[in-house]
What we know:
This protein is mainly α. About 75% of the residues lie in helices and about 0% in strands.
Amino acid sequence: MRAKISYAVTAAVLVFYFILVGSRGVMLIQTGTVLTVTFGVAVLILPVIGLWFLWKNTQFVRRANALAAELDAEGGLPVDELKRTPGGRIDRDSADEVFAKRKAETEAAPDDWRSWFRLAVAYHDARDTPRARKAMQRAIALHDGRTTSSA
């Protein structure tokens, strides 16, 4: 729940920022000189890109959470079997061991979104965020009946 609240607050701050920047872009355009109109248009592009990125990221998180809920209802969420350091960090060797299991599971069932979901969690635990995201995108695509290239 804390993560959802943090995400919502961050998104709200970003939207406020995009509105503020967008209003400055409009003010520059209203000035009417070639230079200020050019800068105004350039400034308006930033909030558009930011809003698009925020929207895509929010959609990704919503879909990943929906898969997690479905997998939880099936009793298929990965069990946290990772060893931790005294400080609470995940032990690297433990994460590598679990990752090897999840990778083998995914290779055995490459069209199963559940195995890709669990692989994404293993990537995340191994602190490989780009591959975790790609694996989760693959899980979402397989769940939705779409196909993508392998992660």
